[in-house]
């Protein structure tokens, strides 16, 4: 019989873990036996509540800007002080809906900083401390594979396209150290970030694009991340797993 705690002995560092997909991932990985570092940028109340829910013996919360290299270095340092890492799940992201004409330099820098620079340097700082058999799971979007994408997502998918290429190259590099690197690319998922600024009619329209006629859930995305972190994903490397219920195929 399979162990109910297949990630026992592992330590997962999850950026943007106080809510949404990051929170669901922290809850699932901890239920599978991992100890989790819950990174948050500002909402200490939500992060502390999540630590209390998981248990202070299995989770800690660390505040750090996931787009700032010095703060990422500190985040890794504090994580290493708590235990060696085997898993990185990068859930921190910004979903700026900006097209070509609307994008400003400030918004471009913000999106690239959190969505590209942050994951790049998080892996750079953490990889030397990761154990053999470790996993890196980054986050993209199924919009990168949607032919009907609208112009307002230009900036967002530009950053996520970079993540997908980063995944392919990092997988070759870190694979030599027996560390896998993959990316999960969700379709529309029912998070606070997704619902922000959208009318009920728009949400229902987006849900109708899916053959299941609904949005994904954070828990379903977390399930894919957990698979890639576990033994079932040991021979999966350099892949972009589009978790969207068949919205894109």
Automatic annotation (TrEMBL):
Q: Does the keyword Oxidoreductase apply?
A: yes
Q: Which InterPro entries match?
A: NAD(P)-bd_dom_sf, Sc_DH/Rdtase_CS, SDR_fam
Pfam families, per database record: adh_short_C2
Q: Which SUPFAM superfamilies match?
A: NAD(P)-binding Rossmann-fold domains
Q: Does the keyword Nucleotidyltransferase apply?
A: no
Question: Which keywords annotate this record?
Answer: NADP, Oxidoreductase
UniProt GO MF annotations: oxidoreductase activity, acting on CH-OH group of donors
The family this protein is said to belong to: Belongs to the short-chain dehydrogenases/reductases (SDR) family.
Which named protein is this? NAD(P)-binding protein
Q: Which organism is it from?
A: Lentithecium fluviatile CBS 122367
């Amino acid at each position: 019989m399979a162990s109910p705690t297949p990630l026992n002995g592992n330590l997962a560092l999850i950026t943007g873990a106080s809510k949404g997909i990051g929170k669901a991932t922290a809850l699932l990985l901890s239920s599978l036996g991992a100890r989790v570092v819950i990174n948050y940028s500002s909402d200490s109340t939500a992060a502390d509540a999540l630590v209390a829910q998981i248990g202070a013996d299995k989770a800690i919360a660390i505040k750090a800007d996931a787009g700032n290299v010095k703060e990422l270095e500190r985040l890794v340092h504090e994580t290493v002080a708590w235990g060696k890492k085997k898993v990185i799940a990068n859930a921190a992201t910004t979903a700026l809906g900006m097209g070509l004409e609307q994008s400003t330099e400030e918004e471009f820098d913000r999106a690239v900083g959190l969505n590209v620079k942050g994951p790049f340097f998080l892996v750079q700082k953490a990889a030397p401390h990761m154990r053999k058999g470790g996993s890196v799971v980054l986050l993209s979007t199924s919009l990168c594979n949607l032919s009907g994408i609208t112009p307002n997502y230009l900036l967002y998918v530009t950053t996520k396209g970079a993540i997908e290429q980063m995944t392919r190259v990092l997988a070759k590099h870190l694979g030599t150290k027996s560390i896998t690197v993959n990316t999960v690319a969700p379709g529309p998922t029912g998070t606070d970030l997704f619902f922000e600024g959208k009318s009920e009619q728009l949400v229902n329209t987006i849900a109708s694009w899916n053959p299941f006629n609904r949005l994904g859930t954070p828990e379903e995305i977390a399930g894919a991340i957990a698979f890639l972190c576990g033994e079932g994903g040991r021979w999966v490397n350099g892949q972009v797993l589009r978790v969207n219920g068949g919205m894109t195929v």
